[in-house]
Amino acid sequence: MQIDFHHTAIYVLCRLAGMKSIYAEKVAYASQQVDNANYAHALKFENGGIFHQTRTAHENLAFLKMADVNDAFNIWLPFHFIPSGEGGDMLEALITRPHSCTIALLKEEVIAAGDQGHALHLLGIFLHIYADAFSHQDFKGFYDPYNHVKVTRSLERMTFKNRLIFEVVKRLPAIFPVGHALAAKNPDIPCAVWSYQRAGLVEERVDNLYDRFIPAVINIFDFLVDYLEENNQFGQPINSELQEKDLDIISRLLSFRGSCELRHQIWLDNLKENCFNFVDFDEVDKNLSYEKRNWFKEAVLARQETGFKRRLEYKAFNYHSFQKRDSFDRSDWTLFMRAAAIHKYKLLHEILPTCGLYIG
Question: pTM, whole model, 2 decimals?
């Protein structure tokens, strides 16, 4: 999925479930940040200390990294293509599915962590993973022949850049059966109706809106109600089920065509007008926005190294020089990084082994 779902749809679902706006804003930002935290270098602070980042995404067009199975197990598998842990054998257990042993155990972990300082950041990370489990279902998050699919019907329009990428990747299938690379952006676009086929198997037709996105909306809302029932410091559940009028608005917003940036803006515009009729509608709802480096800038002051010797020294040790801000230890960025590191460790070393997958 893309920013229109990971940020704004998640924010709306948090609010509809009963979460207060100040907390929903953090959850939604963390959810989208999973797609934007693409740095892994260590930060060496001029005012003391070193901090190692947890990367949860790749830079755009990082093809060689995407195809690296070692890197895949650090990024794609723990944050975007969660193995189900279910099936007849190990190979089948590695396929991403929206309803699985892994998802069930992650839900328990996230709810139980509600009293931690990084609780909302962990919730946002999980909601990104849960949403992707719907859109990325039937693929694996690393190099595997299972991901070698032929798209037989695609979304009507692609940007020139996406078309170029798709045409290149399509002609090099032996190199890029990673995740849904050979299906291009089709799984992530809410209004896409597309079809794909694996060798020797029947063609699969997918109407994203009704087959994947609406089920994701309903299941995420249900989980958020459960979450708030156990963690009511963030808000009280309003309804036990998503109201039909709200689902109709969400369906309409998910049906818009256009770039993910345009679709995201349409959600923000509708939020500003309180189209969901939040009883406690406030300035956070009205002014919701997303800038991918805001949290980082609030935690860290970037410094430009001067002097050839100094730059060479830092280059040799792969350090990047910064200063901590006074709020660094309790900042949203630091808490997000902590939550991402904890999630990855628990998934690989505790949750997947519980489901019979020993890959940590």
Answer: 0.93
